[in-house]
Amino acid sequence: MGDNGEVGNTYESILNWLGKKGYNLDELGLIITEQKDQLIIAGAGSGKTTSIIFKLNADIKTGNAVHEVRHKDMTTQVADKIWVSTFLKSGAEDLQRTFMKQKNEMGISVGVETVKFSTLHAEFLHCLKELKVPVHIMDMKSTMGMIRDVAKNFGLGSRPGYPTNEEVSSIVSYISAARNRLNPDEFYHPDMEDVGLTRENIKYVIANYAQMRKDYKCMDFEDLQELLYKFACNPETRNPHVTNFISNRYDRIIIDEFQDVSEIQYEIFKVYAKGCKQVTVIGDDDQSIYSWRGSNIDIITKRFPADFKPVINKLSRNYRCPSNVLNPIINSITMNENRYEKPLKASREGGTLNCYSYGSTIEMARSIQEQIMEDVNNGMTVAILGRTNPSLLPLSVFLDFQDKFNYAIRGTLYDLKRPKFRKYWQLAYLFMNNYEKMHENLKVIAKDLSNYQLKNFVNALKIQGQTIFNFPMNSLRNISEDLASFVIHINSTADDEVEKLKATFEFVKYRALDANDEYTEETVSIIELLEMIIECGDVKTMDDFIYEINYRNTRLHSRADSRDTTIQLTTVHDFKGKEADSVYIWKDTNKLFPSSRSADTEFEEERRIHYIAGTRAKEKSTILTIRGSESPFIAEMGIVPVAYFGEGASGSIRQNANQIMDDEIAEFIYGTDQSVQSGGVDFEKILEEKKESQTKLEEEQLQKQREEEENNKKTNSAPALDFSSMFGNKPQ
């Protein structure tokens, strides 16, 4: 690493030392020697942590990080108080480790005792304590308990007033995201409606939670920044003593991951910066993906430059991804308008970028399993990245069934017992004559009936001892066209109950595809998960299916507890800032990249999420998509997916002569229609054919019955029952 004596006390000698160690000084040299306020735009994999810590140590080594203090007739030099901050505790610890390592290499022994590494929240807590503000921060268990009480008050959760642990955790996250905005009432995220939060009720939920904290005389982390904002930033409530105290806490500030700063945090940061001799912030506008929780890309692209007039330097060389991996994803991200222009480039040539299209999810899962095994045999670390947790579950279950290698699930694990999953797998009870659960089961199928009507219908079935599948079709059509279509589809299937369950899932999936709304991809992912359990498990009865649900749920939770990092399944958000030798982008489709739940105004952020996924690989990046449902970002990258046919090792890949395509070819292949396709299956046509067949069969049976009545002068079967009178328009 070089002799410590080689490092002099000037910037020139430090740069010479770094040059001998192989560092590229074209950009790093400008960053290290800058003494004005500085904004560093650091591209993915550009070594930003190393760069900002070299900047910090160089200022200390050269004696620049000092200031004069005059006391009576004496003037002394005192080390600057320096605060280095980032968002996660692990990130702050990583910065501190890098600092200590570099300090020793550079032979620095003084001036480091006044350097502080912490998260924003940790600094806010220390600041309030020094201001003698009584602070009692709740632990997460207490927070969850309090939010559970709030949920009961407002009927939140899929079972109103009785949310699951995961739903409580989601409510905590949404409340936190809202409170990171200057106006929490403006917060909205479509997923929050899954737990009962709406644009209308969230401000009352936040107020109720605040009253509870007040009653119990406790605080959470958002309270810390709200208090500082109130007494240091808000013109109507700020206290000059507090403002002066905060402004004079530090002489230099370095903020990492600046693209993730929320609006309220930025206002507090400006007060901290007032008394500083230098402010350095570093971030990547192309990796700003947390707008839903309060961050605002305009802070790094517009507001900080306008407020501080900083020198803007850039780190554009990517030391992680080789050129074949990086260059195509650059083609996509440069289409964003709200970004800094930067000459992104790979530090090395080579690498592998694959893009395969499949006819089904299980075909994709079989293929990726073999590719992963090959990667691991070649000594590679592997990450499989999904846009959402539900989208990864079919793969998680498939790999668990195959059990050919260990893998770990990172981030949030969705419990298969939670309501959004349970309502689908409990459709199995339709074939077990379980009247108690039938009302809830049929809610998934009959969108054209109210709860009241469904309950009446189930009661009628129970009284008559019938199932929905032998209910007279003419009467069923009078009650619900949805139920009639469903029964026709199921009754045309083989008598085997597992086949009927598979047909049920098929019905639900294609109805979701036909709806083509913000819930389509989540519903399809859950159904594919259940189909995967039937496909891979030894499922011969409904009891077998329910057993597999419980067993796989336990197995998946054990995967979530794994500490193995060789093979990881996680979301793009959870893998931000990390890397692996081989990275797979799972289900790179037009319902996930971009998410069907994102607004049109969030399209650039969706492109940034895709960019992050595409810049995690050190050697090989593999995009996996579904034919006919490709993400538009794939075309932006200028690549053509290679069609994959078959299953596992028996499958074949139809190679294109050249995966890189020009705009004309892309338009020919993709056109302008990016709608979800159903794998070439016209389900509505099939359903209509089944309806026609069922109607014809009913007519034949009716004619036969009439002939028998004429011949035998009696009725061989009970007349058709008609319960339609029970189904008024009574509201739910």
UniProtKB/TrEMBL annotation:
This is DNA 3'-5' helicase. It catalyses: Couples ATP hydrolysis with the unwinding of duplex DNA by translocating in the 3'-5' direction; ATP + H2O = ADP + phosphate + H(+). PANTHER family: ATP-DEPENDENT DNA HELICASE SRS2, UVRD / RECB / PCRA DNA HELICASE FAMILY MEMBER. Belongs to the helicase family. UvrD subfamily. One of its GO terms (molecular function) is hydrolase activity. It comes from the Bacteria. Residues 691-732 are annotated as: Disordered. Residues 21-322 form the UvrD-like helicase ATP-binding domain. It is an enzyme of class 5 (isomerase). Its EC number is 5.6.2.4. ATP binds at residues 42-49. InterPro entries: DExx_box_DNA_helicase_dom_sf (IPR013986), DNA_helicase_UvrD-like_C (IPR014017), DNA_helicase_UvrD/REP (IPR000212), P-loop_NTPase (IPR027417), UvrD-like_ATP-bd (IPR014016). GO terms for biological process: recombinational repair. Residues 691-713 have a biased composition (Basic and acidic residues). It comes from Bacillus thuringiensis. Keywords: ATP-binding, DNA-binding, Helicase, Hydrolase, Isomerase, Nucleotide-binding, Plasmid.
